[in-house]
Specification:
The chain starts with a strand and ends in a 7-residue tail after the last strand. Strands 1, 2, 3, 4, 5, 8, 9 and 10 form an 8-stranded mixed beta sheet that branches. It is built from 4 helices and 10 strands, in the order E-H-E-E-H-E-E-H-E-E-E-E-H-E. Strand 8 (155-163) and strand 9 form a beta hairpin. It has helices at residues 19-33, 76-86, 120-132, 183-188, and strands at residues 2-10, 49-50, 60-70, 91-97, 106-116, 137-142, 145-150, 155-163, 166-174, 197-207. By secondary structure, the protein is of the alpha+beta class. The longest helix is centred in the N-terminal third of the chain and has 15 residues, at 19-33. Helix 1 crosses helix 2 (76-86).
Length: 214
């Protein structure tokens, strides 16, 4: 039994594919690739796959991953080539290897956020002040219902600059199994100038020491 972790991009039209459909897409691609994947046992066997951190619908990502198992070893380069031939062009694997970290170690993720707005300078001033305030209290859904939480320690604005029609931001959010902050949670509670459009792309995932998740 060989444990495999594949890193892939989910871009362009693929951002509109739900996580449930991503699961189906991967299952079909793995079957067509004829890779010696391991199936779960029991009454309804299926290809074993786990996605440590699925991206939200409508978001792009340059750093997604899926874990699976092979019943016999296959060179990593061959795995990448065979699976990419069976995946849609907007979902492509760029790295294959054995898992180096536990999924539970995921702690942070970096995003590129672009906001379309009428007055970029004013928007930049307002969003910067909002993120840098001492507290950012929001209502967050939990398993026990809605709860007010302070997401200030869980959000960082790394950089921000004006664009022709808005603002481009590099942001870091707490991300993982235990604590997971969706970027939309911040922007939905932003009281300043509302933008006409917001695009979000995840570009990297880290552990607590800000080492790239591998």
């Amino acid at each position: 039994m060989v444990k495999i972790r594949m890193f892939f991009k989910k871009e362009n039209r693929a951002k509109y594919i739900s996580h449930l459909d991503i699961n189906r897409c991967w299952a079909r691609a793995l079957k067509r690739s004829c890779l010696p994947v391991w199936y779960t046992e029991g009454f309804n066997p299926h290809i074993y796959t786990t996605f440590p951190l699925p991206i939200s619908l409508g978001y792009e990502s340059q750093y997604e991953c899926v874990d699976l198992r092979l019943v016999e070893p296959v060179p990593f380069g061959e795995i990448q080539e065979r699976i990419n031939r069976c995946l849609p062009p907007d979902i492509q694997v760029f790295q294959v290897g054995e898992p180096q970290m536990d999924q539970k170690e995921i702690a942070w993720a970096d995003y590129e956020v672009t906001a379309l707005c009428q007055e970029p300078d004013e928007y930049i001033s307002q969003i910067t002040a909002f993120v840098n305030q001492p507290e950012i209290k929001v209502m967050k859904k939990t398993k026990k219902g809605e709860k007010e939480v302070d997401i200030k320690p869980l959000v960082q604005l790394l950089s921000i600059s004006p664009t022709e029609n808005g603002a481009a931001m590099a942001m870091r959010f707490a991300t993982g199994i235990e604590v997971n902050i969706n970027p939309s949670l911040l922007f939905q509670n932003f009281p300043g100038q509302q933008c006409q459009g917001l695009t979000v792309k995840r570009v990297m995932v880290y552990n607590a020491q800000l080492e790239r998740f591998q």
